[in-house]
Automatic annotation (TrEMBL), chain A:
Family that this chain belongs to: Belongs to the peptidase S26 family. IMP2 subfamily.
Name of the protein described by the UniProt record: Mitochondrial inner membrane protease subunit
Listed Pfam families: Peptidase_S26
Stored PANTHER family: MITOCHONDRIAL INNER MEMBRANE PROTEASE SUBUNIT 2
Lineage of origin: Eukaryota, Metazoa, Spiralia, Lophotrochozoa, Mollusca
UniProtKB/TrEMBL annotation, chain B:
Protein name, per record: Peptidase S26 domain-containing protein
CDD domains: S26_SPase_I
Subunit relationships: Heterodimer of 2 subunits, IMMPL1 and IMMPL2.
Family designation: Belongs to the peptidase S26 family. IMP1 subfamily.
GO biological process terms on file: protein processing involved in protein targeting to mitochondrion; signal peptide processing
Subcellular location: Mitochondrion inner membrane
GO molecular function, one term: serine-type endopeptidase activity
Membrane among keywords: yes
Alphabetic keyword roster: Hydrolase, Membrane, Mitochondrion, Mitochondrion inner membrane
Domain called Peptidase S26: residue spans: 32-97, 102-141
Tagged with keyword Hydrolase: yes
């Protein structure tokens, strides 16, 4: 009986730190869907586990080419994993039927899946607010054959007009606070 | 010596667990918030202390007329306090632009009670639900205006 009590007590002691750690620093999740092929889930089965760096996202430490996880703007219970293409202030060539240039507004970024044919991304719903980004995906943990850091991917030349010299947070288009 | 060490370990374990429990309760349950803008006057005035419950947002229990804390869409570091006027599928008349706007799937329409001083959905359109942080349930301070902020008055006519 004594060891059972100890076990229960140990579990109870362990759960809150685990939840807090998951919420503040790192968490592990499976990737579902094929929108990030061939980087994630290349066989089309939901097998990949990624390490999500929540601390980086809370401090907005992601750049063009990073893989991030975000809450879907169309459905708050859905979780997406996409690659950041453009940050606030940039001009990006939209890949939807209209092929138009989009100015990414202040506090927003442009996200896309690597699998362009089969991805619900900014080409559908437009730029997403930074506040929806929950974590930066930094490592592939499973399967072991592809274990390693998720690299930044260079973005195709000519698609994004970057504005590097602009004071971030002070660029905006249209709406003045 | 050994017993001192084990006592220390125990203290650290209980301390960490207790702190994490507090964090989880504040993050996933209820916590206190201070409203520092005038956009919700007269319901919430500048500097009022309120009780905010985030599980309403997490479990999708919000309804029209609730007051919520939300991340500002154009400045992710700042928090705004507004009232939900319409939810997904509704049509709202935007009297700032003078046209009716449709609130798309997964979005909400937020407006402050103080129409003159509030910068809200009338300027930047519907907000994605994922930006909401928590629901404001009780106004705690100052004590003479203590009260529950339940679904009471939705000041806008919105046709669904």
């Amino acid at each position: 009986m004594r060891w059972m009590r100890q076990l229960v007590r140990g579990t109870l002691l362990f759960i809150p730190p685990y939840m807090a750690f998951n919420d503040i620093f790192f968490s592990i999740r499976t990737v579902d869907g094929v929108s990030m092929q061939p980087t994630l889930n290349p066989e089309g089965k939901n097998t990949d586990f990624v390490l999500l760096d929540r601390w980086a996202a809370a401090n907005f430490q992601f750049e063009r080419g990073d893989v991030v996880s975000l809450i879907s703007p169309k459905d708050p219970s859905q979780w997406l994993i996409k690659r950041v293409i453009a940050l606030e202030g940039d001009q990006v060539k939209s890949d939807s039927c209209f092929e138009e240039d989009v100015n990414v507004p202040r506090g927003h970024c442009w996200v896309e899946g690597d699998n362009r044919e089969c991805s619900l991304d900014s080409n559908n719903f437009g730029p997403v607010s930074y506040g929806l980004i929950t974590a930066k995906a930094s490592y592939i943990l499973w399967p072991p054959s592809r274990w390693g850091k998720l690299d930044k991917l260079a973005i195709a030349q000519g698609r994004v007009t970057t504005r590097e010299n602009v004071d971030r947070g002070k660029v905006f288009f249209g709406w003045d606070s | 010596m050994v017993s001192t060490f084990s006592a220390l370990c125990k203290t650290v374990a209980y301390g960490v667990s207790g702190l994490s429990t507090c964090y989880c309760l504040l993050k996933f349950g209820c916590s206190l918030g201070k409203c520092e803008d005038v956009s919700m006057e007269p319901t919430i005035q500048d500097g009022d202390l309120v009780l905010i419950c985030s599980f309403y947002v997490r479990h999708l229990l919000l309804q029209k007329g609730d007051i919520v804390f939300s991340k500002s869409p154009y400045d992710p570091r700042s928090v705004i306090c507004k009232r939900i006027v319409a939810m997904e599928g509704d049509t709202v008349f935007n009297n700032e632009k003078g046209l009716a706007e449709y609130v798309g799937k997964g979005h909400v329409w937020l407006e402050g009670d103080n129409k003159e001083a509030s910068v809200d959905s009338r300027y930047y359109g519907p907000l994605p639900y994922g930006l909401l942080i928590s629901k404001v349930t009780v106004r705690l301070w100052p004590p003479e205006r203590f009260g529950f902020l339940d679904f009471s008055r939705s000041t806008r006519k919105s046709s669904s």
